[in-house]
Amino acid sequence: MKILIVEDEQLARTNLRNIILKRFDDLEIVGMLGSVKSTIQWLRETETQPDIIFLDVELSDGMCFDIFHEVKTRAKIIITTAYDTYAIKAFKINCIDYLLKPIDPEELEAAVERCRSAIQPPTALDIEALKQVLNSDREPAFRHRFIVRIGDRILILPTEEIAYFYAEDKSTYAVTKEGKRHILDLTLDAVQESVDPARFFRISRSQIVALDAIESISKHLNNRLKINLLPKPSFDAFVSRFRINDFLEWIEGK
To answer: By CB atoms within 10 Å of each CB, which of 52, 71, 125, 225 scores lowest?
Structure first.
């Protein structure tokens, strides 16, 4: 079977390629791409189409779903993602499966075998149906972990171990309850959208705090609220004036 890898991170792309080559003798990698634009061009211009596409959700120039606005494919799709906020059932359309990064070789092998056994007179991937399932009524799913890259190492950071997030000098940081700081490959807006709002609150443009990291709250000048956090941060944590009412309701559990 012919394999196309669409992944914008060089390390992740190489790791996936190595796992495939090590685990399967009969799979041929016919392309490795990193963007929506290059994938559209490849699928349009390449005569021999892949049987399976390993597809990262967020690519360098957009979401993977944008590819299928321009081209159709009969390949089986295996989603690879660092996020667990996508509905698992969405990835079962047209024998779609998913792998959560860092990819487990045994899970990859099982996903390929499911695609292999399901290959039959194919139907085109219905990307609209996929999007409808993703957007259908379902209980919201929030992050259970963040992926932190330190050189060639990948660290898994459980969300329940995080005391607060903050943005500084165009970077986003997560600070654990033990006081360890890690830089994230996400904006603070993306972090806010992915964490449970019952546990985390964005007190200002640059700070998100966990409920169990708040030691005390005190009034400050001009009716502002100052939050004392544990572990003690390198910055002063103030609740923005226009967020105070929402913050107090959050504290009370309303």
So the answer is: 71
